[in-house]
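Box 4.2: Ligand-aware structure prediction
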Amino acid sequence: MKSNEMNKVLFHNLTCLTISIAAFLLLTSNAYAYRTDHSFLPPEANVCAAHVPVTLTIPPNSQAIPDPSKGEFSHGFYHIEELKDGLFYVTDGVYQIMFLVSNKGIIVVDAPPSIGLNQADPAASLTLVEVIYSIPETQGKPIKKLVYSHTHMDHIGAASFIQDAFPDVKIIAHRLTNKQLEKGTNELEGLLPGAGSSPPPLAHRVFSKAIKIKLGKQKLQLSYNGPAHEPGNIYIYAPRQKVLMLVDVVFPGWSPFSNLALAEEVPEYITAYDKVLGFDFDIFIGGHFNRLGKREDVIEGKKYIMDIKANALAALQNPALFQIFSILPNNGLGATAVYLDQMACDCANRTLDPNQTPSAVDWRSRIGNADINSVGHCWVMGEAMRIDPMF
Ligand SMILES: [Zn+2]
């Protein structure tokens, strides 16, 4: 090997080593910096000192039904169950779909890549399609329609498996969902394991306000009532079975996923609870966990969100938290960031204290992940209240 080639190799190796050390240091420091150190603040303005303790205990109300740890998953690692009159739901414990069976075929709602561990190599993978056909009720009946609840890949990333198996399947989505899918670049393919052999196909039929779909005796009413989670997320209602599905908004028995479940418009997110309750449903499917919801769960979820809202307002008005602006007089945006972090901690501490929160509910022992997620909800809620003109 010539010396300049050796130098190149050496340089390459050194570069790799430097990057590795930098990455290690970055990861290590991140591991320590769970929450930014604000110890320079006076104690009364440093409400994050308590750090909203996380217990990792799952309250009884949130327990998975059935509980996978008890081996009750009926088909291996997923659970599949008929809720009523040919309407089934499937969960792997984290994600949920539903499908409706008629003598003319099947309507499927959503295609999360996690259900069935869909991998590019079909020989090494059980696909979502195989999961759906693992029960006698679906045998010999083709999937004729596929509905997208919204654009997020963790909920529809395995749609291509369905289209590969049933090329004539008709996909239905909101107009805004299709618009977002059209913009996809594929550049980040592979970040979500099992996200299909190709991106979710575009819908064949789109709508703006509402649409009814029918297959044999099965009917679904799809409607759009504003961006409860993101533009284009729809309410999916089965009137005969009185089952309502709305994904990534209400999490029965649980605190929503981080940051109000990534709600893009917080006021719309809050009003979605009442819009859900406006439907005549007996069973609610929220798209996550393996717990279904009833009306009481939606009412309780709303109560938790209203507590977050009230406590965010109280924290925003806490005069102790304004001290940061005199500590960092020449760094307005930095001070604002510290202020918002402290506001979120103050709000979360109030929310998790049954003696302070307006509902007087002990959320930590009532819903799962209240301890983990309240800080994030409070941050998003408080900042939206400060700057969102729709509040
Ligand atoms: Zn989503």
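In the box above, the bound molecule is zinc ion. The longest helix spans residues 3-32.
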